Amino acid sequence: MEEIRRRAGADDKPLRMVKTVLHELVKLRGAAIKGHLSMIPIDMKPQPIILAYIDLNLETLAAARMLTSTAPVGQNHWGDSVANNSSPATHSAEAQLKQELAAIFKKIGDKQTCTIGLYELHRITQLYPEVDIFAQLQNASEAFRTYIRDGLAQMEKNTAAGRDAF
Hints:
This protein has one domain.
């Protein structure tokens, strides 16, 4: 955050533009924005500035009641669940997550986008470890569920070995 404050004083127009776009995205997507950060390393030390800025926007917009869909205020851990809270906004976030999972499963089912879909699903399982992705696949074929299970296991092995997930 200090880097953002330092650069903001230098009349950094590109930074202002990025901050404005990010602010609008957080306002529109709420906590679900965290599901779209597949290329941001969430476990890096120090944590990337964008994550702190998104958290700050979520808190500020929640306090001003300007979020379209919100997670509980004060959630700063990127793996925290929105599924354990029973507020109406949380149900909206859960519905959004289900829609995102459905879109990811569709990508996995397409030969051209299956690797990207598996990567996004792997990222979702890291961000929301308590979400049972296989509950959404109960009507899918056993072969599809096995393909996903094996693909996620391979990505986990690659991540543990320090390589890219895919």
